[in-house]
Structures are given as C-alpha cells and as structure tokens.
Amino acid sequence: MEWKILLYARRKEPLDIPDDLSKYPMNDFELDYWRIVNSAPFRRLQDKTQVFPLDKSDFVRTRLTHSMETSALAKQLATMITANIRKNKSGTPYAMTEDEARDAANAVMCAGLLHDIGNPPFGHFGEVVIGDWFKSHLDRLSYKGRPLSQWLDRQMKADLCHFEGNAQALRLLTKVYRVDSAFGMDLMPAVLNTLVKYPVDSTRVDKASADVKLHKLGYYKAEEALFGALASATGTRTVEGFCRHPLTYILEAADDIAYATADLEDAYKKGLFTLDEFERFFRDTLEAKKDDWGLNGGQVKKSAEMIDELTRLRERESSSMAAFQRWIAYARHWLMYTAAFGFVPYGAGQTDSYSAIMEGTFRREIMEGTFHGGSIRILKAAMGRFAYDSEGILTLELAAQTILTTLLSRFVPAVLYLDAGDDAPEEYRPTAAEKKLVKLLSENQLACYRADAEGKDEGYRLYLRLLLVTDFISGMTDSYAKNLYQELTGQLTGLQFSPAQANALLGLLESQCSGLPASTAREEDRDISLYDQLKLTAALAACVSEYLQQADAFSLLEAIAEFSRFYQDAFLSHFPQGHPVANIPDTPHLILGGGTGFLSKTVGYPYLKDDYAAVLFKSRCSCSMHPCRHSYRVGPSH
Fold it and tell me: Which of 100-114, 338-352, 475-489, 500-514 has the highest mean pLDDT?
C-alpha cells in the first residue's frame, strides 16, 4: 500500500462550496471534520450510552465525549507515529512526506469522531439485543406464509443475527444520512476505510482467529459492492480479499486507550471499586494471566512498575481521587508511547511491524507485543470486573433489553408488507396501526430503502426492509428509545414516583383542604371533603395507569374505552340499584377527565366514609379486572 493512494482517493462527488468560502480554502479532511461535527448523527451521540446506560450524572462519558477523546488521542498518536516514520523510514518504499503525515493525522482524527456513530442505544449491549432478537424471530415471523428465514440467504441472516455497529456506521455514512449528496455524508474514502476495522462479511467472521480483522463483520451484504469499490480506490483490496487500512490500527489503539483509562475513571467516580480493590485486581491478574497471555519478562516488569506508581501516588496525594486521576494520566501517556512504538518499532533486533502493516499482513493489534501489552489487557479486564458486572449496569441493561425487544417486535412486523399495493390480499397488507408505525420512520431512511430496493427480487427487498428497522432503531438516542417505548406501551413519560414527595404532598393537602367541601352543592354537610376527593381521584388515575400498562395498549383512547366497559360491567355491579354511580355515562372522557371528581364523590358518599372509598375502588379493580401493584395511603388506619 502507498500513502498517496491510501489518503487521497477522491470522494464520490465534489462538495458544493459557496464561492465566497472558496477564497479561504480548507483541505479535504478539514472539510470532513466540519461536516461531521455539524451532522445530526454526531450530535445524537451526546445521548447514547458509553458504559453507563441512562446515567444522570454530569461527569460520566457519553458516546459523544468518548468519541471526542478518541479523536484527540488518535490525532496525537498519528502525529507521534508519522514523526517516527519520517525519521526512521525515509528512503524506504513506505516513507511519508510532510503533507501525508499531516493529512494522515487529520484523517484518523475524523475517523475517531465517527468510530461509534453506528452503535444503537444502550451501548454494545444494544448490539447484542438486536442480534439475539433476530436469532429468535427469523423462524417465528412469517412473510406470505413462509418464515422470514426462508426468504433470506446465509449472508443476509448472518448480517441480522450479528448486528454490528461498525457495519452500521458504514451504511449510515454512505447511504442513510443524506443532506446534500446521494452518497450519504460523502466523506473522503480514507476516513471511511479507516472506520472499517473488520474488512470481512458476516459469513467469514471467526472470533477465535489470530487475525484480528476476522473477529467481527465490517459491512453488510447491502454495502458489499460499495465497500469493494472503496477498498479498490484506497488500495486496501488484495487478491485474497481486503486488508485493514493502516490508519485503522491507530484508531483501534486510540479507542482502546480511551476506553481503558477514561471509562475506568468514570467507574471509580461512581464508587464501583476502591483503590485497594483495583490494586489487588491488577496485581492478581498480572500474576494469573502472564503465562496465558504469553507475556515476557520485560512486559511483566513494566506492568508491575505501572501499578507501583499508583501506590506511590496514593502516598503523596491528598485524596484517593487525586491520586487515581494522576495515575490515569500517567497510564495513558505510557500506553500512547508504546502504541506508537508498536506501529513503527526502531532500534536493533525489532520486528518490522510497519512493513507488515503496509503490506496488509499484520494480524494483531499494535500494542500487543509492546512493553505494556499486558497492562492494556488488565485495564480492559478491570472494566469487565468492576463496571460491566455491577448491579446497577446489569439492572439498566435488562431495562434496555425490554425497550429494544419491544420496539423490534412492533416495527419489524410493520414493515413486512410495506410494499404491498391496494390489490394485495388483505392478509398481505399492513394494518392501520402498522401504517402509523411506518410514518415514524425518517424520510432519509425510507429513501435509502427505495433506492436500494429498486430492481431487486422479493427476498432481497425483504432483507432491506429489515435493515430499514435496524437503521431506525440504531439511530435512536437512549432517551428517544425509552420515550418511544413508553408511548407505544401506554405509559406516562417523565414521571418518577417518590413516596417521600407523595406523603409530603398529602400532608400539605390535608392541612389545607380537609375543611373544604368537594363542591359547592347545597347539602354541604353530606359532601366529602376536597382532600378526600383529591385522594380518590389520584387513586383512580393510578388504577387506570396500571391497567393501561398491563393491557399493553397501543391506542390510549381505545384503552380508555375498554377500561370504561370493564368499569360498567365489573365495578358498577357491586352497588345497589339506583346508587348515583350507576348514572355515570359510558363515555371515555369521564374516566380520565372531569368525571373523576364526580366519581370519587359518589363512591365516597353516602355508603362509605371518606378514607375507605379508595380502598374499595382498589379492591374492586383487583378482583374484577387486573391486579394492581400499588398501595395507597388513604387514611390513618390504611
């Protein structure tokens, strides 16, 4: 491979730059940087999980801050590496010019911003959930009387069952996200090729292989031809297939360093481990794994020196937090230094990894054989030990699984018959509800589907419609996915129950409203108090909300109407003939609207005294409709 080809393959079409701005030229990679930071998919990273899903604290990294850190690390690392190349490899076939060194650093900086842009909500766990959903549903869901799996070839099924954010990034940037080009974001080929860490299709993935490029899929079948053309343009296509772009090794090292240091710092700030626990884990893992990992004496010595530095810092610094933050900076420095050396070793007796990288034959990560090859593995293992297996993350991941599986279960059936015409049999046409779901998809996503589907056979179009759903869901932020799930399942959004706040409010209402009648009716002595009416109204609203959640209602109005019918049949039958409650019309708005006040008063008067009315309502709901999980504090004795 040659740097002038690796870096300067042209984008699909020239950018439309206004004449006034053309007076102040930027190079192609500077233009790419500008396009990336102004794009909607990049902005959405601010609300996507890095490690801790749906975290409310302001110091924890999101995908956006992680991507910015990776980008900065990648540019600095590329600057160090290209300086070594220019110093130690001049006069060789793989020498670099000054301009090539500058542009290589800018290209990998852009790739750092984009390296996680294809990831779905809730981090890498979201990838697993999406893949697992397709594994369990391709044989269960049918299209025109046949299981989906029978319409798809081996590669199509593998694409869906091994959903991968890296492959999704290539698809997003070249097709799905469109503003001013039919070629997606229309970035430089060097940037796009750097992003493809695993230049193999889903049928060739081999996680056990010694060759790192085979560990995951890098592109879907839908982008196979596109990636082939991209690799040919940059010179990374070989007789045997595809090799990694050299800048990909730099991007991968920067991502690993950011993940192993910054994310570990977040975990410590969240109190997931103590420094005593961390030191013990580091030393124990080094001792236990040094033989399994094939670490030599020099690597073991350097890793031991790294953790010894934390011990010294703890003795000198005023706080554990200050000591750990200083140590994180120290560790990051050494990891970057060894990564730069791993790309371009120099000195007597060193393996020429740089030539292997440029020839497409290098099979491992650049840090693996360096002095701190063991240190980076221990730090990544510490994240698994202290962060990923923590109770808080496991609980939130279970919630994320519920959200994503529900969205997939709604939207995949909705797109199966997206192309059906009015003359199709009724069972092969989308329902009214499915048509409404399709309207939530973006026009860009639908345009991408229509363009790719033109002229394709029925099985391939079905595959593209399934990718349409993964385009939609993977593009969501964590909050959007959670809110859409709540809306589709009839749940209220943005409300968090707090017993302390509820009891404080009850106390305020009791002191202010106990002496007030619930209405201005003439027979005020026979009316319940405003305080009791408010309690009963709240109890009714909670019961309705509980019912809606358990009914998994798609339409709120339909659910209210259904609740009203249950109410008439089950609840009213418990009152004597002629009781005022029996006069309530069967009208949905009276259940959740102004009728709640009338209902609460008639339940409370005259047969039951104030504090017991809500208990009756709850018990009637429990036995006649759906059991309620909530308990209500409606009086001193309850």
Answer: 100-114
| Cβ neighbours of 492 (radius 10 Å) | 11
User: Could you tell me the end-to-end alpha-carbon distance of the chain, in angstroms, rounded to an integer?
Assistant: 78
What is the rounded CA–CA span in Å between residue 149 and residue 157? 7
pTM of the model: 0.75
Give the SS3 label for residue 563: helix
Largest CA distance in the chain: 104
Distance CA 349, CA 19 (A): 55
What confidence tens digit (pLDDT) does each residue in 283-337 have? 999 999 999 999 999 999 999 999 999 999 999 988 999 999 999 999 999 999 9
Residue 418 scores a pLDDT above 50: yes
pLDDT, tens digit, for every residue of 118-134?
999 988 889 999 999 99
Strands 142-143, 146-147: pairing kind: antiparallel
Q: How many whole angstroms separate alpha carbon 629 and alpha carbon 619?
A: 11
CB crowding 281-291: b at 16 or more within 10 Å, else e:
bbbebbeeebe
* Closest by Cα among 164, 156, 238 to 198: 164
**238, 199 Cβ separation under 8 angstroms:** no
Q: Which amino acid is at 71?
A: S
| C-alpha span between 221 and 6 (Å, rounded) | 24
